[in-house]
Amino acid sequence: MEILTEYGDQLITAFIRTIQLAGLSAVGALVLGTILAAMRVSPVWALRTVATGYVNIVRNTPLTLVVLFASFGLAQQLGVTLVDPNSPTSITDSSFRLAVLAFSTYTATFVCEALRAGVNTVPIGQSEAARSLGLGFTQGLRYIVLPQAFRAVVAPLGSIMIALIKNTTIASVIGVAEASLLMKEVIENTSALIVVGLIFALGFMCLTIPTGAVFGFLSKKLAVRT
Amino acid sequence: MASSHTPAAALIPDGDTSIVPTMISMRGVNKHFGPLHVLRDINLEVTRGQVVVVLGPSGSGKSTLCRTINRLETTDTGFIAIDGQALPAEGKALTRYRADVGMVFQSFNLFAHKTILENVMLAPQKVRRLSKTAARDRAMALLERVGIANQADKLPAQLSGGQQQRVAIARALAMEPKVMLFDEPTSALDPEMVTEVLEVMSSLAKGGMTMLVVTHEMGFARRAADRVVFMADGQILEDTTPNEFFSNPATSRARDFLSKILSH
Question: Count of domains in chain A?
Fold first, then answer.
């Protein structure tokens, strides 16, 4: 209990940071993942090749390396910090934004592959009907195929989002003040490893279990009936 | 349009189309699926307002023929045109060409995630750039015409097969096509639903629409067709009036085919 009274405010702040990280990265991953999936099913050879190469490289790189590359590679070597260097909070803002970038680019590859599996569940007749009405490839994808592909993979997308929420703990390696960074600090200060561990595990479950429930509900509600 | 519906055009010999313009034109079309020669030197001219029924045993290439006309299947050699416009290979020109060619599939292929009304409104809005209200008005009028207006807000899965196919016809008509292709439109239907679809097709034929219909419905062929094209092994073996075809088939393949389907 003392831990909760002493660190309660910090705990909430840290988990809000975690939610911000995961939320923004989820949006980025869904947008980028959709673009990648569209490229991977495109009839244009160059687009397919670029997207396939991207997915294979990023998906097979450990997330820690992706996050470290964003921080050290982009920020320190190339000077890409994504912030105004004169801002007083430039360092924390920069780590946070770079972490969002890293999580988005990494998770997008999983979103892309899930969606591509979803595209394969849409019967060929759907895109033939779209083509026969004079819709172009992109229109057919946008209005007919991808909406149905999304509905088919809501449940696996939920798993990807849960993994993303838990993956945000890796942002602590570049100093983003999310939940796990606070956890290390609390453990060092209190040495109550098990209790602290349980508190933080519970904290993450408060985020991931509702996420799973929401996606499970959407999966049923949005399912395409044929 | 109604006045251009001239069954007599069936009897105009090849080349003499000075009276009624040619809507569908296929010349020397060949196609292989691997080693299989599925379309052998197809020549077919359909004049405006004509209703052509394509008959033949399964595997004779009649569905493939239908699908090459809007390039859902590519061809190896030959020339295809709609209303004098050659079939483009790809790109914007192909989508524009397809917008003028309505197609109805055996398995309906209604967009499963969209309501009946949205199914009919989509292409006029996105391809023809109609306003939402204009597309809605057109869609409702067409749904009224095929007798499904009261189901406009349902999803395809909530309708019977016959109703779905009538919606599919309305969806194709919403593009105001020059030609309608029907690829076995009643083959996936329960017997009691066949009539409602054939009735819509018959009224369309009476309205002067140029139609190419791949079907096994001999009654429809007799009543509504201006011409019957009989295919076997990827070739057109007969091209004549329904009366002539059913009472006096010229080839033994056709006689064989007719004896099998008419004997029971």
Answer: 1
- Residues B146, B148, B152, B153, CA torsion sign: negative
Cβ neighbours of A221 (radius 10 Å): 9
A148–B123 C-beta distance less than 8 A: no
pTM value surpassing 0.80: yes
Taking only the tens place, the pLDDT of each residue in B222-257 is 999 999 999 999 999 999 999 999 999 999 999 999
The end-to-end CA distance of chain A, in Å, is 54
Put simply, whether B70 touches A (Cβ < 8 Å) is yes
Q: Do the chains contact at B99 and A133, CB–CB below 8 Å?
A: yes
> Which helix (H) or strand (E) element contains residue A189?
helix A179-190
Cα angle B158, B159, B161 (rounded to 5 degrees) comes to 135
CB atoms within 10 A of CB B1: 10
* DSSP letter string, A109-172: HHHHHHHHHHHHHS-HHHHHHHHHTT--HHHIIIIIIHHHHHHHTHHHHHHHHHHHHHHGGGGG
CATH of the domain at A24: 1.10.3720.10
Domain that holds residue A36: 2-222
Q: What is the ipTM of this complex?
A: 0.87
Tell me which chain A residue has its CA closest to the CA of residue B174.
A133
| pLDDT at residue B5 in the model | 42
